[in-house]
Amino acid sequence: MSFTSMLHVFAVLFALSISCWLGGAALFTFVLTPKLFAACSRDMAGMIVGLLFPGYFRWGLICGAVALFCRLVLRGRFRSVSIAILLAMLLLTATQAFVIEPRAAKIKEQITSFETTPKDDPHRVRFRHLHGLSMIANLAVVIGGVVLIALSTLPGNKPSTTTDPTATTGQSIKPRS
Length: 177
Known about the structure:
This protein is an all-alpha fold and 177 residues long. Helices cover 75% and strands 0% of the residues.
């Protein structure tokens, strides 16, 4: 496989990983979770979502790591901005996975039922705070994914498969014969 072909594979992997990350986050956030809370009791829906969180965060971390690696290899306009956005998205996802979610899960164990425990209960107040932070981080990741997709679709801004650092598109220009 030629070097140019390998770079093309990285460009495709970059697009796929961002699309899978954004699609997974959008599906989980805007479809799955609201449907669960509409169809199940609050306690049951919370338990199901809590069971899904570790896989959801691993999915984001894997997609983000692949996208970051590919973007580090590829050239193109907005490369530095894309890398910064990816790093921020990965940091937010890692914070959710390794800090916020474990703390929220511990607090959740102290709440016998969200349906019967008063809203001003100290555990519910702390849980609500962590849930709010997690929602903000999740929305920021979704917005970051949308921005990355938008940047990659702007004319002349595709990640380039050329080794020429001055090139700005993914297409090579061939002289006419």
